[in-house]
Specification:
The chain has helices at residues 5-17, 24-37, 40-53, 60-72, 76-85, 92-105, 108-121, 126-138, 142-154. It has 167 residues and is an all-alpha fold.
Length: 167
């Protein structure tokens, strides 16, 4: 279903209309397809359907897909508001989806917020530091980008360059 958002939705609708009850994996696949095809309204409609009919079955994957879907569309505030409504703690995947969208759309404020959570959840994941630095660089905040690299050094994520003596 990857890359075929409209086909995924069509097959999903046929499945539901024929009486087959979709499971969590089916919902995840269709939400993912909507996100990658830019079908934001369709993805929101499906997610709202899930909230009404499957709320007990909502998983991290579903929220991650929705944050990614909204983030790709530049609707970062909506993505963050969705995170705040979750009934369980957001995972590193959810914060990572928001951080990735913040890089694309150069949103410093939500990028910093996402990164702070990711630094707590995955303190040794260098990718999170690099993405925050990338946001700072994109908006010309060079000192902040350098501070991220220094922070990586402080927590031991960047080794000092090796030195050798040739004699």
């Amino acid at each position: 279903m990857h890359g075929h958002g409209e086909t995924s939705l069509s097959l999903f609708n046929e499945m539901v209309q024929s009486g087959v009850k979709p499971n969590e994996v089916t919902f995840t696949s269709v939400l993912h397809a909507c996100g990658h095809a830019g079908l934001v309204d369709d993805g929101l409609c499906l997610f709202n359907f899930m909230l009404r009919n499957q709320s007990g079955s909502l998983r991290t994957d579903h929220y991650t897909c929705m944050v990614d879907l909204l983030g790709r569309a530049g609707r970062l505030e909506e993505a963050y508001e969705l995170i705040k409504t979750m009934t369980f703690e957001p995972s590193h995947a959810i914060w990572g989806a928001l951080l990735g969208a913040c890089v694309i759309h150069e949103n410093v404020e939500l990028g910093e917020l996402s990164a702070r959570w990711l630094f707590k959840l995955e303190p040794e994941n260098t990718g999170n530091y690099i993405l925050l630095g990338k946001i700072y660089s994109a908006v010309g905040r060079w000192k902040d980008a350098e501070n991220v690299r220094l922070l990586m050094n402080e927590v031991g994520l960047i080794k000092a360059p090796a030195q050798s003596v040739i004699g």
